[in-house]
């Protein structure tokens, strides 16, 4: 096939434009006398002709252009045109330098152990991962970057939308002076209760140094400033009206003036409890990574190995609280704290449960499409009943308020055990009951330990013995409830399993 | 009856109806679950009495939800 090269137009100067000169794998051109340079790229086994390929682990200079010789130039020298089809498919493109982490001047990464799969910049990662992976912390918009307070950017999981300077500037300028003052007081608020991890361990206290950009249009703000005391008075009245009223007042206040996070603690005086306790953004529950999922699954099935059960707190960077309180301390998202509840595992295990039910029915040739819908509804019914009972119980014993999604998340973890039971029942028939009992027990222990801090009184005042007994009884009830619940979910397939 | 989401909803609605019906003056005071007494005693009783009061306040929306449910059940069966 090298004897009749493709016919080229001799008048054409530029080789690239000639359609006949395009590379044809079945008829590769032979421009040079050196036969070694003629290669069929589909059969290239060694790349000795080309420049030595850059190993991915070698290049650690993300900001310098790639130093090694690039294949396209060598292609050109060898007479191959620049057409993309001429580049052999097994030559990798030069890796693009990853985006530097603008959010993190100190390159601080909370979960930065070697096994961490969290989406932070990691020079050991392959550069060929998807671009979104290394861009998990998108750079700040440049207009607002100069106004960034120092300690707000030390957490790499912050979103640009939550940044105070990226909001309409009129709001931040209006609330700037007291905002700065009060926010200092909240950040350096002493640890009133014996909480081991009030502040994220790697974030030191830094007084917020928010500069105050002066904007010309402050005249309409004067009117608002005059009205604010009345608004505040009204909300404070709502706060003093009662327990739930305070939360509603705090919510309203924060929704009306998102920049005034510092006000809330001062005015409503609830200390650490000022964050939203009715609703938290669902986004919070889905920030998980592989490490968290694996550890959590292990925790659910074998809760004996955990050392600390308290949830860690940190600065709420990710705008997870429904009221948008920036800078207030709240619980860390699941990605950073293995004790935090998430909704990913319950959702996935619930879907797995429904599918496995269908599978079990199918093994007996009793499958109908209606079965999936029925067991889906049944699972949801059991879950909602349990959530309602637990919510009622928490209210009756005057426990600290817990968001709805938290309770749903904790209750949804039981589907993991249910799936495990069904799986083991399918594989080995005799394992069915033991695994069922074991997973219900494990779930009970897990729930008991997780809820201890919510239910039992935190301070060691002299509480009535009856009250304490009631709380302990409720805690126990939480776990004992698991047995009938597991039974309801699983046991009417006992007959099916027996027929294997 | 199959335990499903609709079943739970109906049961919950009936339960809420039952809690909303309890009349404060005619019944609760006789049994000793009035507000003053619960405030004195405190604890779970206070919470329950407050809960019942909340249900009494919500009587109108409960009526609306009942009507809608009745209509839907008429149509769907």
From TrEMBL, chain A:
InterPro entries per UniProt:
Yif1_fam
Q: Which domain of life is it from?
A: Eukaryota
Report the locations given in the UniProt record.
Endoplasmic reticulum membrane; Golgi apparatus membrane
| Comp. bias regions, Low complexity | 19-35, 153-181, 201-217
Any Pfam family from its record, for instance, is: YIF1
PANTHER family named among the record's database cross-references:
YIP1 INTERACTING FACTOR HOMOLOG YIF1 PROTEIN, YIP1D-INTERACTING FACTOR 1, ISOFORM C
- Name of the protein in question: Protein transport protein yif1
Q: Which UniProt keywords apply?
A: Endoplasmic reticulum, Golgi apparatus, Membrane, Protein transport, Transmembrane, Transmembrane helix, Transport
Q: Where is this region: Disordered?
A: 1-217
Q: Where is the composition biased (Basic and acidic residues)?
A: 9-18
The protein's topology relative to the membrane is: Multi-pass membrane protein
Family to which the UniProt record says this protein belongs: Belongs to the YIF1 family.
- Keyword Transmembrane among UniProt keywords: yes
Q: Where is the composition biased (Polar residues)?
A: 36-60, 67-93, 123-152, 182-195
Q: Does the keyword Disulfide bond apply?
A: no
Which GO BP annotation is one of this protein's?
Answer: protein transport
User: From which residue to which does any coiled coil extend?
Assistant: none
Q: Transmembrane ranges?
A: 343-363, 375-397, 431-448, 473-491
- Which GO CC annotations does the UniProt entry carry? COPII-coated ER to Golgi transport vesicle; endoplasmic reticulum membrane; endoplasmic reticulum-Golgi intermediate compartment; Golgi membrane
UniProtKB/TrEMBL annotation, chain B:
Alphabetized, the UniProt keywords read: Membrane, Protein transport, Signal, Transmembrane, Transmembrane helix, Transport
Signal peptide range equals 1-18
Annotated GO biological processes are:
endoplasmic reticulum to Golgi vesicle-mediated transport; protein transport
Compartment list: Membrane
Major site of localization recorded for this protein: membrane
Q: Which Pfam families match?
A: Yos1 (PF08571)
Family per record: Belongs to the YOS1 family.
Q: What is this protein called?
A: Immediate early response 3-interacting protein 1
Q: What is the organism field in this record?
A: Gracilariopsis chorda
**Taxonomic lineage per UniProt?**
Eukaryota, Rhodophyta, Florideophyceae, Rhodymeniophycidae, Gracilariales
């Amino acid at each position: 096939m090298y004897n009749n090269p493709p016919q080229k137009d001799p008048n054409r100067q530029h080789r690239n434009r000639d359609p006949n000169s395009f590379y044809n794998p079945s008829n590769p051109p032979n421009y040079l006398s050196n036969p070694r340079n003629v290669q069929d790229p589909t059969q290239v086994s060694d790349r000795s002709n080309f420049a030595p390929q850059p190993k991915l682990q070698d290049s650690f200079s993300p900001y310098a252009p790639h130093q090694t010789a690039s294949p396209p130039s060598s292609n050109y020298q060898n007479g191959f045109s620049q057409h993309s089809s001429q580049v052999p498919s097994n030559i990798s493109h030069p890796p693009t330098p990853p985006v530097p982490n603008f959010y993190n001047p100190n390159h601080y990464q909370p979960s930065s152990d070697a096994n961490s799969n969290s989406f932070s910049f990691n020079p050991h990662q392959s550069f060929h991962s998807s671009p979104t992976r290394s861009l998990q912390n998108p750079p700040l918009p440049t207009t607002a970057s100069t106004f960034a307070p120092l300690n707000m950017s030390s957490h790499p999981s912050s979103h640009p939308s939550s940044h105070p300077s990226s909001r309409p500037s009129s709001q931040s300028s209006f609330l700037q002076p007291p905002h700065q003052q009060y926010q200092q007081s909240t950040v350096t608020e002493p640890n009133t209760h014996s909480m081991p991890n009030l502040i994220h361990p790697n974030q030191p206290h830094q007084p917020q140094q928010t500069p105050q950009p002066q904007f010309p249009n402050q005249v309409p703000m004067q009117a608002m400033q005059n009205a604010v005391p009345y608004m505040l008075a009204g909300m404070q009245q709502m706060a003093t009206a009662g327990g739930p009223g305070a939360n509603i007042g705090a919510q309203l206040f924060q929704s009306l003036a998102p920049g005034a996070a510092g006000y809330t603690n001062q005015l409503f005086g609830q200390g650490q409890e000022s964050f939203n306790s009715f609703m938290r953004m669902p986004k919070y529950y889905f920030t998980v990574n592989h490490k968290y999922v694996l550890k959590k699954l292990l925790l659910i099935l074998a809760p004996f190995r955990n050392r600390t059960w308290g949830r860690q707190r940190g600065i709420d960077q990710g705008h997870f609280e429904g009221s948008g309180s920036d800078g207030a301390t709240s619980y860390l998202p699941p990605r950073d704290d293995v004790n935090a509840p998430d909704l990913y595992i319950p959702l996935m295990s619930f879907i797995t449960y429904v599918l496995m039910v269908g599978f079990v029915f199918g093994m007996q040739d009793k499958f109908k499409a209606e079965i999936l819908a029925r067991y889906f509804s049944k699972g949801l019914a059991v879950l909602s009943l349990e959530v309602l009972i637990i919510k009622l119980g928490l209210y009756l014993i005057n426990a600290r308020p817990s968001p709805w999604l938290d309770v749903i998340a904790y209750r949804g973890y039981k589907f993991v055990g249910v799936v495990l039971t069904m799986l083991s029942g399918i594989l080995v028939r005799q394992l069915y009951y033991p695994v069922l009992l074991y997973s219900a027990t494990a779930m009970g222990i897990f729930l008991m330990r997780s809820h201890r801090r919510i239910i039992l009184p935190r301070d060691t005042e002299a509480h009535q013995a009856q009250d304490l007994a009631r709380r302990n009884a409720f805690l126990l009830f939480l776990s004992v409830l698991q047995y009938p619940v597991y039974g309801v979910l699983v046991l009417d397939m006992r007959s099916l399993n027996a027929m294997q | 009856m199959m335990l499903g989401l609709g079943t739970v909803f109906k049961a919950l609605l009936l339960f809420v109806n039952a809690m909303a019906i309890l009349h404060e003056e005619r019944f609760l005071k006789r049994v000793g679950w009035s507000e003053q007494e619960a405030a004195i005693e405190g604890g779970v009783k206070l919470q329950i009495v407050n809960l019942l009061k909340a249900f009494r306040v919500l009587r109108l929306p409960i009526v609306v939800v009942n009507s809608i449910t009745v209509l839907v059940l008429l149509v769907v069966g």
